[in-house]
Amino acid sequence: MNGKTTTFEWRVDHFDLDQIAESGQAFRWEWRGPENYAIPAGDRFCVAYMPEPDKLAVRCPENWATFWRYYFGLGDAYPEYWAAIDTWARRDGPAAYLSKAAATASGMAILHQPAWETMVSFMISQNNNIPRIKASLAAMCRRFGKQITTPTGEQYYTFPLADTLTDAADLSGLGLGYRDKYISGMAHAVATGILPVRTLEAMDYTRAKAVLKAVPGIGEKVANCILLYGMGHLEAFPVDTWIRRVLDREFSDGFPMERYSGFAGLVQQLIFYYERRK
DNA sequence: GTCCAGGCCCTCA
DNA sequence: TGAGGGCATGGA
Q1: Model pTM greater than 0.90?
Q2: By residue range, what is the domain housing residue A56?
Q3: Do residue A185 and residue A155 come from a single domain?
Q4: Which nucleotide is nearest to A175 (CA to C1')?
């Protein structure tokens, strides 16, 4: 029903699976080797790897090519973004903080993850650390997702639908702590249509952020993560404890946001990756 | 034991 | 509008 499994190959530039995997935007990628991952997203799955530095290979059902191409942002305006970033890096010089971040994270990309999965993932992320976020989401998918075996024998769990997460009592044992009530509340709102995800996805950045921030458990930072990683708003600039430290330390006179108008979220991602790698 | 993690909510001034 | 405490949990 999903068609035959095929391996698609796409030519890529400024694209590195390992860097993306270590950038804290997706929590369910499973490492299989260098530049090689099993990747579930929503109810889908692929194996992605890089046979050459400028080639991305994706093994999935043949009618999912469009989904995964979009997921990896392959149709986005990265040539334009990187041209701007590189221009500023030359102007600033190699010792400038942003120049070093861009050089270190030169294969970074912002994924287009399913909106609902992103909403839950980043609600869990608040005041939490990445290993625990991953563990909670894995446990949640095992308990409430559907186990799928692909025609090639790969097994994965789908991301749970909203109507399976509406009872906070069911969520115990997932390591969610106080966040369980936030999750079940949001799941109830989505499942009953009070919070229509599709409508949210169609809104512009400002309006969508206002709606998201009205959800208990979603503040400025989590809203920006959802907008950036799950709703395609590359202008979103999430400020967490890591980014806060960099802004205070390196940009006490203000961050030059206007340079990166429309794709500041990508620059934020370069900083996050670079800072954590140091 | 204390501190921290891709923060948010509530209270109080 | 902003500062400060509380919040579940587990690893360092």
Answers
A1: yes
A2: 5-71
A3: yes
A4: C9
